[in-house]
Amino acid sequence: MLTDTARRLVAAAALLALTLAGCSSSTTSGETADKTVPEDQAPQATEPPPAPAPTGFAADPVRAVDVGPVSHPPVALHATVAWLLDEEGLTGIDMTTGEDIARLSPTAAPLYEAWGPRSGLTDEDAARLEVEGAQRQLHHPSVVELAGRSTVIGTIPVIGKSDSPELEIIAADAETGEVVWTLPLQLDGLDSDGDGRIAASVIHADGHHVALQVMEGNVMTRTVVVDAAARQVAWESTEFKAFGGAGSHLAGLRFDEGTTVLGVDLAEGDTVWEQQVSGNINLGPAESFLRFEDKDGHEGPGLIDIESGQGHYGVAGLTGDMNCRHGAGGTTLVCMAEGGDAMAVDLGNVDAPLWQLPQDNVPGNYRAVFQDSVYLDNDDELVVMDARSGETISTAPGPAPRLVNSHGGIVLSGQTIQIYPAAP
Q1: Which fold has domain 4-35+50-421?
Q2: Could you report the per-residue pLDDT of 115-156, keeping only the tens digit for each?
Q3: CA 215 to chain CA mean position, Å
Q4: Minimal CA–CA distance to 369: which of 335, 337, 395?
Q5: DSSP code of 102?
Q6: Euclidean distance between CA atoms 76 and 13, whole angstroms
Q7: In this predicted model, what pLDDT tens digit does every residue of 228-257 receive, in sequence order?
Q8: Who contacts 362 (Cβ-Cβ below 8 Å, separation ≥6)?
Q9: Are residues 135 and 129 in contact, defined by beta-carbon separation less than 8 angstroms?
Q10: Which of 85, 253, 291, 296 is the most exposed place for a label (fewest CB within 10 A)?
C-alpha cells in the first residue's frame, strides 16, 4: 500500500509532466450569442478557414507586462486577444495594438494580492516576497467552446463565506470580454494556510462540462467538473486526479490499495476503463492520449487513448522523458525531451512515427506548437519546424514565443511577458 508521502510524490511527478507540457488551451472561434439568449437558441456562425501559422513576428513587442515569478505564461490566446490571468482577475489585451479590451474581476474579494511593482522594498518585505514567489501558484486561463460560443475561463482564489477560501470561476466571451457567468466553488477542505497556494485550471471541456484540476501547493488535491448550462458542480473527487481529457472522457490517476490509471465519463464521473500500475510511473497529457510509462512494470513508454483506454506501446523513438504537445488546428503530436531526442506521430495513427531526430539534430529547445508548426529557441534565434516532416521551415533572429496563434506570439522573458504580433 502506498503511503501518503508516496502518493504525493507520484501526483507531484505526474503534475510536473503536465506543467512541462504547457497545458495549452484551445483557440477555436465562433459567433457569440448575447447572454440573454438561451444557449440552445444561440446563433451559430460558420467559421472561416484558419489563418496559417506564422513563421515570423514583429521586431518589437506591442506590450510588455510584469507577471512576477512564473514557469509558463499565465495566458490564453483567442483570435487577436491575449487573456492574462493574475491573482485578482483577467485582463484581455489586443495583440495587434497592446491595448486592454477588458478587465474582469471576481465578485468576491481575492484571496491573494496580484503581483505588482517591487521597487523600494525593505529587507523584511523582500524576504517575504521571495517566500511568496516560491509558493506562488498562477495557472493559465483557457479558451473553450461552451454551447457554441468561444469562452475564456479563469479561476480565481477568493475569500468566501465565513472567511473560508473558495474558487470563483469567471466565464466570459473570449472576443469581447463580456461576462457570461460566474460561479463560486465552495469546496470542503481547501487549505489556504498550508505550505503552498490554492489554484485551479481547466483540464478539459466538451462544450457542456468544464473539468478543473485543483492544486494546493504543488500537489493536485481534487478534480472538479462543472455543468456549464446549470452553473453548478456536476461532481468532484479527491480520489481521482485528472491529467487529460478527450471527447466526453477524462483520464488520470486514482490512489487506493495501489495506483490505477483510469478513464471516467466527464458528465457523471463513472469509470469507463482502468488499469492497475505500479507506483513508479511517468504520466503526462498528450492531446487525446496520456503519455505513460510504468517503470516497474512491462508497459511503456507509450500512449494511452483517453476515450477507450487502449494502449499503444513500443512506438519507435518515444521515450519516458519526453513531453508531447499538439498545436490547435494541427494533426500532429510532437514529442521532445528537454535537451534530448524528438519525434512525432500523426494523431490518426500513433503507432508509427512520422519522423525521429536524435539530440544533435534537434535545431533548438521547444517553446510552442501551433497547427503543424513547432517553435524552437536556438540561442536567441527563432527556429520554425514543420511538425509533419521534422524539417526546418525558417529561422530568424529574436526570441521564440511560448504561446502562438495566427495573430501573434507570447514571449516569456524573466518575469515579463511580451506580446508580439505576427509578421505581415
Answers
A1: Methylamine Dehydrogenase; Chain H (2.130.10)
A2: 876 656 676 766 666 656 555 778 899 999 999 999 999 999
A3: 13
A4: 335
A5: E
A6: 24
A7: 999 999 999 999 999 999 999 999 999 888
A8: 336, 340, 341, 342, 376
A9: no
A10: 296
